């Protein structure tokens, strides 16, 4: 009997594009594909080759932003179902290497809840990913709570992935630097602030009191929230604020991934605030390198037991892989 010495490695913010869904994204007409975009559309051997080179055993695939969040309801419902069915065909062809998060038609919340149940119960998906605002609406608003009710009942997580901020925010906060620094509106700051805000609003909304079994994932080592937890918790505990522990609620319901944030200092901060059992390894492929991410985590000065949990043990437990 061969005993495996290396940890089983799972990554779960690993993206792809469906051609029909991407065709709905504004501004893509006649645009030349970048190398990253070619990788998003490529579901061939390249993905497996780069996984193998980095020692990644399994990817949990998710459609790239903005998903169906910016479509009208009818189109979102139709394309979400079609996209999920196609993804299921791909993962079923190689189930030992790939699993999936569903794309949800959040412009129609009840249909989104139904699609979550269909993909989990019939297709074997492990949860769902939502990209940013839904046509300008925050995901914590009560119209979207049927999605969270269904996620709790199915015992699967919802991954809150960033997308571009509201146009009014871009205009007020970023336009002066958007041309010389286009990434500022995206992963350098805009994405982080937008996803952080979604996470904070969810804690404040009361959705976790209504659905105490709900689990939410944030990428990029928590979008900066672990560093800010102490200050947020202290200031929201001051007189005049509704009582309740922000830190306790956040740490009870949220999980973090390392996607696109290969910083040892940020990892240690996240471990100290959240505990190692709440941290999941991810790359953010193809925006980040599989090999770079795997080599970084492997070289971090944490125990082998903790590395094994982060590399795959925590994900296997959370997603029942």
Structure description:
This protein has a single domain, classed as Alpha-Beta Barrel (TIM Barrel), CATH 3.20.20.140. Helices cover 48% and strands 11% of the residues. It has helices at residues 19-22, 35-41, 45-54, 73-93, 109-121, 145-154, 167-178, 190-205, 207-210, 225-236, 246-253, 264-274, 290-299, 304-319; strands spanning 10-16, 58-63, 98-100, 102-103, 128-131, 158-161, 216-218, 254-257, 279-280. Strands 4-5-6-7-8-9 form a six-stranded parallel sheet. Strands 1-2-3 form a three-stranded parallel sheet. Helix 5 packs parallel to helix 6 (145-154). The longest helix has 21 residues, at 73-93. The mean pLDDT is 95.
Summary of the model, kept short:
With 321 residues, the protein is α/β, with parallel strands linked by helices. It contains 14 helices and nine strands.
Question: Secondary-structure map with pairings?
Answer:
Blueprint: E1 10-16, H1 19-22, H2 35-41, H3 45-54, E2 58-63, H4 73-93, E3 98-100, E4 102-103, H5 109-121, E5 128-131, H6 145-154, E6 158-161, H7 167-178, H8 190-205, H9 207-210, E7 216-218, H10 225-236, H11 246-253, E8 254-257, H12 264-274, E9 279-280, H13 290-299, H14 304-319
Parallel strand pairs: 1-2, 2-3, 4-5, 5-6, 6-7, 7-8, 8-9
